[in-house]
Design brief:
With 267 residues, the protein is mainly beta. It is built from one helix and 32 strands. The protein is elongated. The model has no long low-confidence stretch (mean pLDDT 97).
Length: 267
């Protein structure tokens, strides 16, 4: 079923973590590989921050392998457009990562890419990778085993765990992302929930072209292909698999199963 392979959902050539999908028969097989991938591929860079499990008492800038607590000026700008600027010793750069006062790093098993921004009130647990020029907004809760690509948004009061966001994926407001994969430039409307656990104690199954496939996953939220759009307050049921360019109307509860690329899903 090549229509369920990763290449059918994502353009992976430029994604830094494309090896996560190598050898996956089904696109959701990557979910069970996240932990091992992070165990062997995570190059944490926050140890010098030396402040964990409590809010940062002052803004920290990660620059050229150092954690700076002074000697810089935050100029600001649009993070995901590579425009967030920091002045360091008279030099302006968009490649410094900024951890604002009041943000929380739970441990040191975290990589924060150049130009990324962690806003006050966000809490990040490892193991986690946050890619370059990505933004973790105020009140976000990253519960670990997260891989966030470049120029992504983990939004205000958004919760994310055991999930992957490919480059340019955005969940700007009030989302839940559990055991899910969100494709390049996909966008979750405010309040979107990717539910990952069935009420009944059973493995998640995916219906695709008349065939019911057992995923062997107890927790599996959704796969959203590149450029998928979900409307505000929509919910995907566990085991939802949306092909590229699908659109979900607001307030829609999406039944589990596979949806062809460019499907329009109404309530």
């Amino acid at each position: 079923m090549d229509f369920l392979e990763p290449d059918a959902f994502f353009e992976l050539a430029s994604f830094d973590h494309r090896d996560l999908f190598t050898g996956c028969k089904y696109v959701w097989d990557a979910l069970s590989k996240i932990n091992g991938y992070l165990e062997h591929g995570l190059e944490a860079n926050v140890a010098e921050v030396n402040c964990f499990r409590r809010p940062l008492p002052a803004t920290v800038v990660l620059w050229r392998g150092k954690a700076l607590t002074g000697g810089f000026k935050i100029l600001g700008g649009n993070t995901t457009k590579d425009e967030f600027r920091v002045e360091i010793e008279g030099e302006e750069t968009c490649e410094a990562a900024v951890l604002f006062e009041g943000s929380v790093l739970w441990d040191d098993s975290i990589f924060i890419g150049p130009g990324a921004v962690i806003e006050p009130g966000a809490l990040v647990k490892g193991p986690t990778i946050i890619g370059p020029h990505s933004e973790v907004r105020q009140g976000a809760y990253m519960r670990g085993k997260c891989i966030v690509g470049a120029r992504c948004i983990v939004g205000h009061t958004t919760e994310m765990k055991s999930s992957v966001m490919l480059d340019g994926a955005k969940a700007g407001h009030f989302a839940y992302i559990g055991d899910s994969i969100i494709g390049c430039e996909a966008n979750l409307g405010a309040g979107t929930k990717l539910a990952n656990l069935k009420i009944r104690d059973q493995k998640i199954r995916v219906m695709a072209h008349g065939t019911r496939i057992v995923t062997n996953l107890r927790k599996f939220g959704a796969v959203l292909g590149d450029h998928v759009e979900t409307g505000c307050n929509s919910v995907t049921n566990p085991g939802t698999v949306l092909g590229k360019n699908c659109q979900v109307f607001p307030l829609t509860s999406v039944r589990a199963g596979y949806y062809e690329p460019s499907s329009v899903i109404r309530g």
